[in-house]
Design goal:
Layout (H helix, E strand, L loop, with lengths): L3 E12 L2 E12 L3 E6 L5 H8 L7 E6 L2 E3 L4 H6 L2 E4 L11 H6 L5 E2 L2 E2 L1 H15 L14 H14 L4 E5 L7 H16 L3 E5 L3 H7 L2 E6 L2 E7 L5 H9 L20 E9 L5 E10 L3 E6 L6 H9 L8 E3 L2 E2 L8 E4 L3 H5 L6 H6 L14 H14 L16 H14 L4 E5 L7 H16 L3 E5 L3 H7 L2 E6 L2 E7 L4 H8 L5
Parallel strand pairs: 3-10, 3-11, 6-9, 9-10, 15-20, 15-21, 18-19, 19-20
Antiparallel strand pairs: 1-2, 1-4, 4-5, 7-8, 11-12, 13-14, 13-16, 16-17, 21-22
Helix pairs in contact: 13-14
Bound molecules: adenosine-5'-triphosphate (ATP) and magnesium ion (MG).
The site of adenosine-5'-triphosphate has 15 residues, from strand 2, helix 1 and helix 13.
Length: 495
């Protein structure tokens, strides 16, 4: 018996030319929260996938409780007490919480699902780990944070002794994140080990016991959280420190707003108001932040401003109504990087220059040489790491794909820039770069509407912060307001 729940020893994995994992050693102690951090593309997800039987390593071994094991599939991994909470939840929306948790491992009575036993088991698990979830609720309609809890319960129901979570907080609100961390601490206290992949160093410091840093497929640091600090972790991650955020300007420029929303009200198909009398304006040279818990009307507002909702009355760009479809005067950095933002089958160059046909002198097609040169310039300026501009954009890591989208949107002529969760899932180095790019665009006179679920991001970037709650703008703050005040407004509390 050892106090190590799992060990990865000398694990290597190659994907074509990319050595994603290069002789990685990682030991997970029983009952610890072990954070794994590193730049985009450092090999974190690959390593977790190997431990969950989704990839076979090219070299190295995995041990559980000191014994060497071979994992050919996730089913093997589950048998060995490994559980994984996927970022895209694999739940059945029309089944109940209890059914989702027991599915595939159901308590059976006379050949049928024993519903009562399933409910009892789920209730007992919820109780034991402090994971509140109503066993009889349908998964459809549950908030993201609760669905994630169901995923965790599903793994625990299968007796997971090691729980792998790959960027679990990317989809959560700050409040949900806090609750998740309480749950992780409770679960770890029962002896379950937790592997937590995250880009947010504040989370590592808040919930991690130990942390392993990866860089370009190798381990570049091992720390005990109590004995380290964010700066030391950043250095191990990207080989340098971050520069402190630029000070905010005292006075936003007073010019006519380029984006104006006046009394915008939007009802959904069932007649429920999703936005009520929302008014806001964004001036050249200013970043207006949008805060709010998920589902407070951000989606409807952004879709209205970009023209994606059609020509809604009350949205004006430079004094004229927004155009339906996708108004070309709006530069848009969508949250859904892979769906809305990029054409996955097309090259990096084509993706970066999409929409720039006219500028490059051709109405119908892009002249090849000019395209390539311009794309290369942008790749350099935005420090996008890509083997070449001719590879498909889908081959880039998440962070680099995001920089490519920013390169396209921030360099094309537009009236307003709408940025939605611009640093979700990107590493600290990229985050710093993205922030610098947005601030530079603002200083050059861009009008930017920034939606972010990260209050620290809004406070670093925004000149003003508007808080949406149940479809209304319930508060406006200066960019340097206290997080607690903004957070309180996000819950609908009024003074
Ligand atoms: N299935 C695959 N096929 C080809 N290359 C892959 C595959 N999976 C990962 N890679 C490459 O391996 C490297 C490591 O990727 P991985 O997804 O493990 O990084 P990561 O640390 O999880 O990054 P991120 O922080 O962006 O999630 C990257 O260069 C990536 O492009
Ligand atoms: Mg990853």
């Amino acid at each position: 018996m050892t106090d190590l729940a799992a060990e990865l020893i000398g694990v290597s994995k190659r994907f074509g030319p990319v050595l994603a994992n290069d002789g990685i050693d990682l030991a997970v102690a029983r009952g610890e929260v072990h954070a794994v951090v590193g730049e985009n593309g450092a090999g974190k997800s690959t390593l977790m996938s190997i431990l969950y039987g989704l990839h076979r390593p090219d070299a190295g071994e995995i041990r559980r409780d000191g014994q060497r094991i071979t994992l050919r599939s996730p089913a093997d991994a589950i048998r060995h007490g490994l559980g994984m909470v996927h970022q895209r939840f694999r739940l059945f929306p029309d089944l109940t919480v209890a059914e989702n948790i027991v599915i595939g491992a159901e308590p059976v009575r006379r050949g049928h699902l024993d519903r009562a036993a399933a409910h009892r088991a789920v209730a007992a698990l919820s109780e034991k780990y402090g994971l509140r979830a109503d066993p009889s609720a349908l998964v459809r309609g549950l908030p993201v944070g609760v669905r994630q809890r169901v995923e965790i319960l599903r793994a625990l129901y299968r007796d997971a002794e090691i729980l792998i979570l790959d960027e679990p907080t990317a989809v959560l609100t700050p409040g949900e994140t806090d609750r998740l961390f309480e749950v992780l601490r409770t679960v770890a206290a029962t002896g379950v080990s937790i592997l937590l992949v995250t880009h947010k160093l504040s989370e590592v410091m808040a919930v991690g016991d130990r942390v392993t840093v990866l860089r370009q497929g190798r381990v570049t640091g091992r720390f005990t959280t109590r004995e380290t600090n964010a700066n030391e972790l950043v250095n191990a991650m990207i080989g340098r420190s971050l520069t402190p955020p630029a000070p905010k300007r005292a006075q936003p420029p007073q010019e006519n707003p380029v984006l104006e929303v006046r009394d915008l009200t939007i009802h959904d198909a069932d007649g429920v108001a999703r936005l009520s009398e929302v008014s806001l304006s964004v001036h050249p040279g200013e970043i207006v932040g949008l805060a709010g818990v998920a589902g407070s009307g951000q989606r409807e507002l952004i879709d209205s401003v970009t023209g994606l909702r059609g020509a809604v009355p009350g949205v004006f760009l430079a004094g004229t109504p927004v155009l339906s479809g996708r108004d070309p005067r709006v530069a848009y950095v969508p949250e859904d990087r892979h769906g809305r933002a990029t054409a996955p089958g097309m090259s990096v160059a084509e993706n970066i220059l999409m929409g720039a046909q006219r500028e490059l002198g051709s109405r119908w097609s892009l002249p090849r040489a000019a395209v390539k040169k311009r794309a290369k310039d942008l790749v350099e300026r935005f420090s996008i790491s890509a083997a070449s501009v001719d590879i498909p954009i889908s081959a880039l890591s998440g962070g680099n794909a995001q920089k490519a989208v920013l390169a396209r949107e921030l360099t094309r002529p537009s009236h307003v820039v709408v940025a939605e969760e611009p640093t979700q899932g990107v590493d600290v180095g990229v985050r710093e770069r993205v922030h610098a790019l947005l601030l530079a665009a603002r200083d050059e006179g861009a009008a930017i509407l920034l939606q972010s679920s990260e209050l620290s991001e809004l406070r670093e970037l925004a000149d003003r912060i508007l808080v949406l709650y149940e479809g209304r703008v319930v508060a406006e703050f200066q960019g340097d307001a206290h997080e607690t005040d903004i957070g309180r407004a996000m819950t609908g509390a009024t003074e």
